[in-house]
Sequence to fold (251 residues):
Amino acid sequence: MNKETKTSFVNRTLGLSLGATQGMYSCCSDAKRQVLFSLNVPNGDIILSPNWSTNSYARSIKHIKKISDEGYELLVFRVWTKKNSKGETRTVGFDPVTEKRKLIDVDGKTFRAVPLDYEEESEPSNNTRAQRKNHTIDRIIRDTKISKKIKNLYRNLCQVCGVKLVTPSGDYSEGAHIIPLGAPHHGPDKESNILCLCPNHHVLLDKFSITFAADGQVSGNEGHKMTLLHDISETNIRWHNTMYLNAKKVE
Fold:
């Protein structure tokens, strides 16, 4: 018996009669009020990026609006792709299982599909708002227990440049979230999403002026390689790489 094709799976799931789905990031059923996105495994939970095919992006952004504006249900299924000899991305395998997800709008152009139980950022237990400190820009500094643990691990030395700021009140560094906490990014407050950085490299990371690979090699600040003493989520790294490329594309 032949294995089910991706097109047959999509048609069966959404009750459609498409002839082909190659090159499509998403399909929509108005009858079921559902949108089905393919979740390319190397991209983590990113389901749509402006760096991808222009035609397919334009089609899928309409489906995003169905979810965000009309309340359509978001479903995903995992796919594996590779480029052919012409440089075209083609699906080479998929997992015929759908999962309900929640849509996260990253920057109005890039979108993530996160689990329904994805934890939103909560207020600190003492009901105080996160502290704001003025540097060259105004940004929120969150010094959570987890970030303190990471900073202690690196002895307040910046993972990028190795600098440690010494102040009268003690050594200073910042816990930088790879996927930032809070809206619109909603990153997790977990060790695998936190780096120990100096204020300068924290700003560069948050503004997507630099990014890094799983081996610690830094892009945007060539000549530096990060010190890595703890496990970092490759999904979060891929997310940051995508945001970095998006920012470079706008320049």
In short: Residues 54-70 form the longest helix (17 residues).
